Known about the structure:
The complex is a heterodimer. Chain A has ten helices and nine strands. Chain A has helices at about 1-10, 20-40, 70-75, 95-105, 140, 180-205, 210-215, 225-235, 235-265, 275-285, and strands at about 45, 60-65, 75-80, 85-90, 105-115, 125-135, 145-160, 165-175, 270. In chain A, strand 7 (about 145-160) and strand 8 (about 165-175) form a beta hairpin. Chain B has a domain at about 20-125 and about 155-175 and about 195-215: Rossmann fold (3-Layer(aba) Sandwich). Chain B has six helices and six strands, in the order αββαβαααβββα. Helices cover about 30% and strands about 40% of the residues of chain B. The interface of A and B includes residues 57, 58, 145, 201 and 204 of A.
Amino acid sequence: MSKSMAKIIPWFKAPELTNGAKNARLTTHVLVGLALFTAGCSGAQVSLENQFPTPLLEPIPINAGIVLNEQLLSYNHNEEIQGSGKFNIHVGSAQRNMFSRLGEGLFSEYSVLGQLAGNETVDAILLPEIMQMQMALPRQTRSEYFEVWMRYRFHFYDNEANLIGSWDLPAYGKANQNDYRGDEAGLKAAALSACRDAMAFFSLNFQSESVAARWAAGEKGTPKAAQETSAETTPEKTLESAENSAAVHEATDKTDALEEQKTTGQAQPVATENATESATENLTE
Amino acid sequence: MKLIFTLCITSFLCGCVNSTIQQVRERETGIQLGDSVVVLGRSNRPSHEETEINFVDCVAKDLAKGANGLNVVSEQNFKDQTFPWFEPRTAPVKVNQLPQLLEQRLLADRLSDLGIKYLIWLDGKTQRTSSSGSLACSVSPGGGGCFGFLTWENDASYEATIWDTDDGKTVGRISSDADGTSYMPAIVVPIPIIARVQNNACNSMAKQLKGFLINNGSS
């Protein structure tokens, strides 16, 4: 009876409740309060499933095959920031729409391929790859902006999957914290801005980039050239060394950041990506 | 009676704002039937400053409101329709870059389709210039409350630069500055008395812009 009464007694009559019910209610409110208080420190899960615009450009007369492999489509950036929690940006979910729009605007014809292999139905093959991603919160940089940095590497192949060359493309996006509520919305806006920046940079510099221009002109990447390249760095090794160099660079940045942290007392991100770990190992060696 | 009471309370709870508007006209302006304008916030790289999205939206909405409201294309729609030419990395910074940009046939056609007559660039931001006081709140099983006094001053400073897409020239500039002090006394319950500085700067800017663009001889 007392339980059912407790359910219907309004909040302002709380003093009339039994001690047990009062304690239970107090505990509930304390827990809810704690949950709300800690919610702001629990990081964020960001998924980018937005639609991107089609570039307004004269299309290049080429039938391009764009390889969107599993590695790209499932790309996740995970980062733990001391005092702010774990952050996850699933930027891979935006890639299919991004490159479909780029293909529509930039090439007279295009098709999406699942993996890199010789394909007679296309003139040439493009394989995009995300090499590196970083993020910063306003409280880390003591600014008003959420920031996201990305580095793409575009590999250009002929239609027999022989490598012609690669092109590194940096992208940057930011979002003012005053325009968004919470870390999730701010980071999403910054990541979307970085994706648009990558698309804009790629679209407008495509024709002036030497490798891309040669690729679009129908140049063949001979297996010999690929072998010569592989004598120094095989495609796999190229990626590995690129990852390592990127990671060394990142690790150097992190070291600098840590140095700065020591002087400023500012919280810095602790990236959990393999690249960073391997770079740290390399540096240690 | 209720309305008068609400208005009295609202006006009492709003802090005072001082605002200043300045206008420089370089060329004649006018809006024909079918002409549109777009309001764009400055966000060029590598500058670290960006105009707040809500200020840009506020000016755009105010320009479209009223009997003599203008056709305003939203910033996001415009950027999507003209992608990638007005992104932070690629947008023209100076008006002398506009004629070269409009040599892009597809872009010029798209601007024509949208009926864009004027590009309005907004630059500036609202900043908190000072704050003082203290306020403490406590909660206990028997109740809770706050006690103290807070005060802060905000300063909004914006400039609109208007480009004519027909001749690729700047037609004028309008600056809107506003500042005001907000208060929050608290005796058990905090009572915020907010000076709506940014909103004031937005309304003044939009009103002046509308008069400037329509150019019916009043401005």
